[in-house]
Amino acid sequence: MGRIIEEIYVWKLPVRMYHWINALCITVLFVSGLYIASPFLNPPIGEAVWFKQMSIFRFLHFTAAFIFIANYLFRMYWALFGYDKYARFAGFRPWSPKWWGKPFREQMASYLFLRSDEPRYIGHNPVAAMSYFIFIFLGSLFMIFTGLAMYGENNPGGFTDTMFGWLIPLFGSSYNLHIVHHSAAWIFPFYVILHLYAVFRHDVVDRTSVTSSIITGYKHKVEDEPSLD
Amino acid sequence: MDKQPTYAEIFKSRGISRRDFLKFCGLTSVSLRLAPSLLPKIIHAMETNPRTPVIWLHGLECTCCTESFIRSSHPVMADIIFNMISLDYDDTLSAAAGHQLEEVRRKIMKEYKGQYILACEGNAPTKDDGVYCLVGGDSYLNVLKETAADAAVVIAWGACATFGCVQNAAPNPTGAVPVSELITDKPLVNVPGCPPIAEVMTGVITHYHTFGTLPELDRLKRPKAFYGTRIHDKCYRRAFYDAGMFVRDFDDESTRKGWCLYKMGCKGPTTYNACSKTEWNQGISFPIGSGHPCFGCAAPGYWDDGPFYTRLADVSFLGTDMNADRIGVIAVGAAAAGAAAHAAVTAVRKKKTDSENDQLEG
Lengths: 229, 362
What we know:
heterodimer; A: about 230 residues; mainly alpha; Fumarate Reductase Cytochrome B subunit; two-stranded antiparallel sheet; elongated; B: about 350 residues; alpha/beta; Rossmann fold; Cytochrome-c3 Hydrogenase, Chain A, domain 2; five-stranded parallel sheet; 15 helices; 11 strands
């Protein structure tokens, strides 16, 4: 094995906190959401009045949703104003050929085995940043807006309904909105699998300790050639 | 034309006691969610305002709205239809027919210009100049526009007139569109449901008659008083929903116990209507009360919202009928398979490069 020649502090504590709160929220939201859409547990035995199976799942879903939203807003703040060059939007320029052109193509070519060497990035590589933007930034935004639109439905004309209820006619009906929200939820497990695979693969191929970096914050540079001593 | 008698005069001539008249006023004000202080205003309006002329048009529809309306429980049907509102034109209920009746419509439009209520049952097909619905030798599209031009307000009855119902379900061969899309320059109230509840229908008319305005409307132009809560919110089976006790099969023990019909495709959670509160046929029952899931007839586009007896609609996806969960599982499975394949290729290539390196070094 190559020796560690440099330690780089990549993910600051707020970013790591965000990541894990987000991961936890997504897990809770997805599982509770599946239950709410199609209750899969056996019914409790006894008087209905003593049990709260659906209520608990709904409570979990809504609570996790609001934590998820707060966490998302915090991450947006950090991306816009945080003094953190690896977590800022400033580095993400999909409109610029400088960002979009060669680096993105090179990274994509590497993923597609069209080139043998791996471009090295300390933060997110352009392909990762792009998928992060599509799945997590836009995906979460979509889930938050559609979710709040449905949440407002119990009080038409109330604050939540006034702010987000306009989405319902946009999707035809409340039922359609439920279906769209439900379908879109599947992008998260889809993304998680690709995300985990990419992380593990990079760790094996580049040996940058990317897996543990989201816990410790540090990535490592190792010697390319095995050292002889 | 003779002076239009007031509601109170009509009730009196029909032999309805003052007590019953006050009861009707009270019930209506409650169902309209009006403050008790407004009850005298209703009574006063009923006693003094001349009856409002109504032109009731039938387009592409099944007449279930009329069927519901004539079964209104308080005041008895005959009175409300033939006397309470001045229902001067209704091609289903009128004794006259043909040119005679069309003449009546034109007469009302002229004599009560800007004063009459236009009640539309059914929507209008717009494709091919509206030939798919002809009334009195003209297309319903033209009749509707012509009659609406001088109306004070427009009431869209039922799922057809409000959201389109089965006529504009995909693929909508006749190009049927809701009334609200054809008539945009008049105050309009949507009273959805297939049919709407009779008490809701009389309530809307009474409100207009009393205050001269439409009741408070929501985003979809529905009266808030009747469409302000979902069926689910006031469902008497809600306790079973919260507890997680669901009917899984119509042959099940749980059906007999009257558990929540959510898993049987009940659309109560997404449908705004007064069924679970007002109920039907003089408050006898409503679909869920009779053990059948709500299929959301008052919700927009309910015919296109998947099979009635499943909670999660089948999404048409690449020509297959699959629900969102199956598509999701397939997508996630594909991602996992792709990752595994990618990992295998990575491993093979890494081994190859490693052995090449070894050879170079060796």
